[in-house]
Amino acid sequence: MQLSLATWRDVEQYLVTSRGIIIPVGATEQHGPNGLIGTDHLDAEFIAKGVGDKIGAMVAPTLAYGMSQHHLGFAGSVTLRPSTMIAMVADIVRSLARHGFERFFFINGHAGNIGTMTAAFDEIYASLSLQPNGHPSPIRCRMLMWSDEKRASSIAEELYPGVNGAHATAAEVSLSQFYHPETVKPVEMSPEVAPPFAPFYDCVDFRTRYPDGRIGSAPSRSRPEHGERLFAAAVEDMVEAYQAFMA
Ligand code: NI
User: What are the pLDDT digits (tens) for 59-112?
Assistant: First the structure.
């Protein structure tokens, strides 16, 4: 069930049976020469809807913008400041908690969000802990990167051994090619495998280190049929993790 397509009566009814909600979170940022700007949020949303369809969990609207300051050297990239994103996530969780949601399961498509999302969860818990005479709160937040979990990551390793990379990965590009095959573009990349991950700072520094936007990846190897396998694996990974979180 999608929150966007439900009525308030549907939501009340859902809350009788479950207090959990899945929230896809990603980014709007460059993904190398053949990856879509929306890769991170589109992938997270596609997987979240797959989980919702499979087990009847509520799926909230996608957080399509994320912490992407390091990608601003490339056209089309948009960032939220960490402070903006923390405030947005905290307001969304508190709004939904107001109605009775207790378990917030974020499916994340962008590693650059991890620090900020973790800080947002701490902001929420801190505001609960700081209440005088506070009562135990049932609010629990969890976030997983779909690409890090066991089934999806082992398929990525099988398909692109040692070169899935850290940004504009072959796996995330394959997944977007599966649900948007009309966007597939054969692009020559040189070098075929991008320079490996190393610490970077602002967006000018990032572009100097990674001139075509990729980190350690070889997304010229991406294929829609790889994306189909990755999708099935990621949905299974996330169903398992969501059910464990709700138990
Ligand atoms: Ni990405």
Answer: 999 999 999 999 999 999 999 999 999 999 999 999 999 999 999 999 999 999
CA of 68 to the centre of ligand 1 (A): 10
| pTM (whole model) above 0.85 | yes
CATH topology of domain 3-246: Rossmann fold (3.40.50)
Q: Are 162 and 192 in contact (CB under 8 A)?
A: no
On whether the CB atoms of residues 50 and 26 are closer than 8 A, the answer is no
Closest CA relative to residue 167, chosen from 64, 63, 27: 27
Domain ranges of the chain: 3-246
Taking residue 10's Cβ as centre, other Cβ atoms within 10 Å add up to: 14
CA of 67 to the centre of ligand 1 (A): 12
218 alpha carbon to ligand 1 midpoint, in Å?
13
